[in-house]
Amino acid sequence: MTVTPTVRVQADDFDVDTETKHLTGGRHDVGAVVSFTGLCRDEGGRLAALELEHYPGMAEAEISRIAEDACRRWPLTGLTVVHRHGKLAPGANIVLVVAASAHRQAAFDAANYLMDFLKTRAPFWKKEHLKTGETSGWVEAKAIDDAAATRWNGA
Amino acid sequence: MTVTPTVRVQADDFDVDTETKHLTGGRHDVGAVVSFTGLCRDEGGRLAALELEHYPGMAEAEISRIAEDACRRWPLTGLTVVHRHGKLAPGANIVLVVAASAHRQAAFDAANYLMDFLKTRAPFWKKEHLKTGETSGWVEAKAIDDAAATRWNGA
Amino acid sequence: MNIRYFAWVREKVGIEEETVTLPDHVATVADLITHLKTLDDNHAAAFADEEVIRVAVDQEHVEADTPLQGAREVAFFPPMTGG
Amino acid sequence: MNIRYFAWVREKVGIEEETVTLPDHVATVADLITHLKTLDDNHAAAFADEEVIRVAVDQEHVEADTPLQGAREVAFFPPMTGG
């Protein structure tokens, strides 16, 4: 039986510690927790903010599909994914993945897999707001992200 | 220029959030933080505690060598490793690795690398204390852990 | 049929959402794009580089040859950049 | 020379730490193990399965053919199980 992942898409910030304790509190079968936090960079001082647009409904649905895939591929004891939307300042949290398992490699691989597919499949788009007051436009998808996702084929 | 990792070996518990904020607080060049937490399992209800013996001095030195290797291999903005010793109850934290970078794969790989080499090279030994009151003896090293460490050769 | 646009596709079309009545010859996602391009200059501009545009039918990613039968909502957007 | 023992090696030898005066013919880690085995039954038992025992000289992992010249501290222990 696979676990049911927790998936949230929200404007509010998240707390890694709180989300981790939800997966480990009161149980003694978790040996490994891997958490990934994605943060807003200022790109060498260029950016004032990142604006994250999303497709409400599909964002939750698509992340849930990826998270359920991960729960089938690895023997996890828990999996939580939180993705923020809205205007975020440099240093702010954007995305959190917490994967828990009895063993470390399953937790590492599941969190890594989640991030690769979030990047390429979750319906979010980033727009850059510059410190000059201008909007520099939409961030372009990277070929390296597509390549990262394809490495899981047949793995 | 590579960063200088923070390495601590201690009896006291650690806090993931505090260690993470040390690596991200007040800076805007960190895009990804991967944390690994290793916890004490009760092995299906069998264990009352794990006792972690270590080689004081060499434990810090060896973890520092592994952490410095990781800082040379990946473009990290920060790296923290904390390993506990002493008698730990099921559910307790044992080890923490937090790797920060501009980009996600460097943070994932560095944290994963650290754990593989901590397992096989850091001078710690686990003894199991059973719920029956007996000591079941020393945990044996696993061939799978040696194999995990060798996968980084030439990578 | 409800049509939604996101990111620069939304900005080029100029609206977030619209209801479009499909002519009989529109059977697939590709047919729908061809039809939308005829609506006005904004739609034509938004779909000018249609190879790059991604499509979801009822909130699931699909390819251009996907049939539209039974679909309630179709969304068009650029490659995703979340995470 | 200061010798330290950890985990079940320590339990079998029966002590954590000892100072050993090296005979002239002890040049390498392997020579030291051979010498320690002659000290008493506990040492002999601890090193009975010497292939499995790991060695550190001055707090760095070494192999059995490592020379001891200049070494201050040698430690013997089972394969590590931390992390």
Secondary-structure blueprint of this entry?
The complex is a heterotetramer, with 2 copies of chain A (155 residues) and 2 copies of chain C (83 residues).
Chain A: E1 6-10, H1 16-24, E2 32-39, E3 47-54, H2 58-73, E4 76-84, E5 86-88, E6 93-101, H3 104-121, E7 124-130, E8 135-138, H4 143-150
Parallel strand pairs in A: 1-4
Antiparallel strand pairs in A: 2-6, 3-5, 3-7, 4-6, 7-8
Helix pairs in contact in A: 2-3, 3-4
Chain C: E1 2-5, H1 7-13, E2 17-19, H2 29-37, H3 41-46, E3 54-57, E4 60-62, E5 73-77
Concise account of the structure shown:
Chain A has 155 residues and is an alpha+beta fold. In chain A, 33% of the residues lie in helices and 34% in strands.
Looking at the overall shape, the CATH architecture of chain C is Roll
Identify the most extensive interface between protein chains.
A-B, 35 and 35 residues
> How many structurally independent domains of chain C?
1
Please identify which CATH superfamily of chain A we are dealing with: Molybdopterin biosynthesis MoaE subunit
Strand content of chain A: 25-35%
Helix content of chain A: 25-40%
Give the topology string of chain A: H per helix, E per strand: EHEEHEEEHEEH
Total number of beta strands of chain A: 8
Question: What Rg of chain C, in angstroms, do the CA atoms define?
Answer: 12 Å
- Give the helix/strand class of chain C: alpha+beta
- Low-confidence spans of chain C: none
Describe the fold and architecture.
The complex is a heterotetramer, with 2 copies of chain A (155 residues) and 2 copies of chain C (83 residues). With 155 residues, chain A is an alpha+beta fold. Chain A has helices spanning 16-24, 58-73, 104-121, 143-150, and strands at 6-10, 32-39, 47-54, 76-84, 86-88, 93-101, 124-130, 135-138. Chain A has a single domain (6-150), classed as Molybdopterin biosynthesis MoaE subunit (Aldehyde Oxidoreductase, domain 3), CATH 3.90.1170. Chain A contains 4 helices and 8 strands, in the order βαββαβββαββα. In chain A, strand 7 and strand 8 (135-138) form a beta hairpin. The mean pLDDT of chain A is 95. Chain C has a single domain, classed as Ubiquitin-like (UB roll) (Roll), CATH 3.10.20. Chain C contains 3 helices and 5 strands. Chain C has helices spanning 7-13, 29-37, 41-46, and strands at residues 2-5, 17-19, 54-57, 60-62, 73-77. A 5-stranded mixed beta sheet of chain C has the order 2-1-5-3-4. Chains in contact: A-B, A-C, B-D. Chain A binds chain B through residues 15-17, 20, 24, 26-42, 44-45, 90-91, 102, 104-105, 107-108, 111-112, 115, 148, and chain B through 15-17, 20, 24, 26-42, 44-45, 90-91, 102, 104-105, 107-108, 111-112, 115, 148.
